[in-house]
Design brief:
Elements: H1 2-19, E1 21-26, E2 29-34, E3 39-45, E4 47-52, E5 55-60, E6 63-67, E7 73-79, E8 81-82, H2 83-87, E9 94-99, E10 102-107, E11 112-118, E12 120-123, E13 129-134, E14 138-144, E15 151-159, E16 161-166, E17 175-181, E18 184-188, E19 194-195, H3 197-223, H4 257-267, H5 272-276, E20 281-289, E21 295-302, H6 306-317, E22 325-327, E23 330-332, E24 334-342
Antiparallel strand pairs: 1-2, 2-3, 4-5, 5-6, 6-7, 8-9, 9-10, 10-11, 12-13, 13-14, 14-15, 16-17, 17-18, 18-19, 20-21, 20-24, 22-23
Length: 347
Amino acid sequence: MKASLVLSFLVFLSLISRSQLYVYKEDGKCGYRSGLGEIVIPAKFDTAYDFKFGRGYIIQGGKKGVINRKGEFIFTPTYTYLQAFDNKGLRGNAYVVGDGNKKGLISKNDHLLIPLKYDTVYWSKVPFHYFVFSKKKKMELIRVTKNLDSTYIAISGKFDSINVVSTGNSGLVDKYYKAFSKKKPTIFNSSFVVVDEKAIADSKKKHEIETARKNKERDEMINNQILIPDMSTMESSEKEIEIYDFVDKQPEFPEGRQELVTYLLKNIRYPENSRNKFIQGRVFLRFVVKKTGEIANPKIMKGINKELDEEAKRVVLSMPKWIPGELKGEKVDCYISLPVLFKIPIE
């Protein structure tokens, strides 16, 4: 038994050693060996650094690159500055690159999105939006397409600076851009249409009202002991005549909770307007599971906006019949609360 454990431990150590890659030098070039000394990637780089997060970081001809465990380039050594190299980690969709004093942007697929002609390139904290600056053209806002294959100039380069202005802290936050030229601001909305200061003030007021409404609804739900569940703990809600909130056996989606999650993911149609504005969050609904298993009377308890709320209602009403709840051995109508998640995936 002891010999078997020792053998298993040695096999485990062997696998770990093989999985780790370390730099070695041969004839002035760098390559990678496993922890057991086996050559995995031949010595062919001018400089190399130990693997991190499954990636190797190398310099070839003064240019920085990133390779995978097979020695294939994730980022070819094309630029003297590579943000992914300096960060020693690949977590973004795009990375700043540069040669000398000029910078640009490449996608995670090593495709040049913004040519190397700007003094500065940085993320605007809005998905797929980048600020670029050059002394000749001043500040521009560049929008990258969602599939990361091309860009376009959303706000042209005639400003000394451009700032992002948020009008709230909820899922309905509006984003504006304040572009300054000689201290005189030009304001753009999320569609890059010029608006005035009143638009920002109105938007802030709208979010204050919306936040107050949501807080009031949440307080009322808590006071009425209506639970707001997550997908793992669906609970019954508000009690009404002949429709039960507490039963001996809760209603169930056919084949269980995980199938319910899968059904929602497959059948939600994300409204294009909300997707384009990056509006996301959870819509909380209450509905009735009848003793026949049919779904009825979906009601929004905590919403996001009209089109997402309506889509949540639609997808709930489209669900197949549930296994009804039971009380004292009899099938009964009862309430169920359910959150429907709207989340835009990061591509």
